[in-house]
Write a structure and sequence with these properties.
16% strand; 14 strands; alpha/beta; 361 residues; 7-stranded parallel beta sheet; Rossmann fold; 2 domains
């Protein structure tokens, strides 16, 4: 029996691929021990137990960006977290640590190194994060979701691990049934709007301001405003707004086109399904969201718009004609699917199995 420790969390972008691999392991190795490592504050605190897996919790330790009291305390806190993970590895008899980035990953990487435990890293973004860049140097293998990240040491292109729910709608599309599940008209062209689990104010404001124009153009809207949005749920003819969607596979299945941020999981899922989109990368950060969507956009499966340029006028001038043209939609959908990876979960699983086999030798 193999025991796995899957480390990551914080946002859906880290938790979803972790759960995708966990589900694949469970389906292919029913007797495997599968444990997750995260924090009490991240989405994993809710999503991991809901999925039926045990969650080991350590303190949330963002890397200090400026000299202050936290920066002084950080080294000792980090060493304590590493020691905690070493104890978990010993207690659970872990054979391999698989890290997905996020606050729990850096201590897990260091604990794996110190304990001599096999280590596999998955980098979800085109521009790798600090913890993954550092640990890739001593990891046994690194799987990357986007080709620009192949400059990491020991890296292999695997694509993004996709949740079984997403793989299900790839294998068996159910557009009309998905629309009906949201109370939408099954035969009306549908636009999905999402800024991620927390929402995106720029996207929300632009869509609300152009709601009348979208409806007048005969475009049905499923607007997922996000948990931090102050917008109230609303149903107005063919405009449906909800705060949070815990069945995003059905939202994706229902749509012909999307407006979205360019998070790694979102870009990967849209491409694998063949859902064309306008991507509005998050303006704060190191530019990884724009890089995530770059190859997909170059292939013709999406459009990139700067956050500062995305507004109601852009929607009326550019998006409505795009979504109203069936030939354009079909061409973009085909282009998106041509660069999508539908078997990223299996590819990562196979990478992990290769590392385990090498360790046994």
């Amino acid at each position: 029996m193999t025991n796995y420790l899957l480390a990551g969390g914080g946002t859906a972008g880290h938790v979803n691929p972790l759960l995708a691999l966990a589900d694949y392991i469970r389906a292919n190795e029913p007797d495997a021990g599968i444990y997750a490592l995260g924090t009490a504050e991240g989405l994993e605190a809710r999503l991991v137990p809901e999925r039926g897996y045990e969650l080991e919790v350590i303190e949330r330790l963002p890397f200090p960006r400026r000299p202050n009291l936290y920066a002084i305390k950080f080294p000792l806190k980090f060493l304590k977290a590493v020691s905690q993970v070493e104890q978990i590895i010993k207690r659970r008899q872990i054979d391999v640590v698989v890290g997905f980035g996020g606050y729990a990953s850096a201590p897990a990487y260091e604990a794996a190194r110190k304990s001599g435990t096999s280590l596999v890293i998955h980098e979800a973004n085109a521009l790798p994060g600090m913890a993954n860049r550092r640990a890739a140097k001593y990891a046994d293998a690194v799987g990357v979701a986007f080709e620009p990240a192949l400059d990491l040491p020991n890296s292999t292109f695997t694509g993004m691990p996709l949740r079984p729910e997403i793989e299900g709608i790839i294998a068996k599309p159910a557009k009309q049934a998905a629309r009906t599940s949201f109370g939408l008209d099954p035969n009306t062209p549908t636009l999905l709007v999402t800024g991620g689990s927390l929402g995106a104010k720029r996207i929300n404001d632009a869509v609300v301001a152009s709601k009348t124009a979208l409806i007048a153009a005969g475009i049905q809207v499923l607007h997922v405003a996000g948990t931090r949005s102050e917008l109230e749920p609303e149903v107005d003819r063919i405009y449906h707004r909800i705060g949070y969607c815990d069945q995003m596979q059905w939202a994706i299945a229902a749509a012909d086109f999307a407006i979205s941020r360019a998070g790694a999981s979102t870009v990967s899922e849209f491409a694998a399904v063949g859902l064309p989109a306008v991507y509005v990368p998050y303006a704060v950060g190191n530019g990884e969201q724009e890089l995530n969507a770059r190859d997909l956009v170059a292939a013709g499966g999406g459009v990139l718009v700067k956050d500062s340029e995305f507004d109601a006028e852009w929607i009326r001038r550019e998006l409505i004609p795009m979504v109203s043209n069936a030939k354009t939609l079909a061409k973009m959908a085909s282009a998106a699917k041509s660069v999508g990876v539908a078997d990223g979960t299996k590819r990562l699983f196979d990478l992990v199995q290769g590392v385990l086999a090498a360790a046994k030798r």
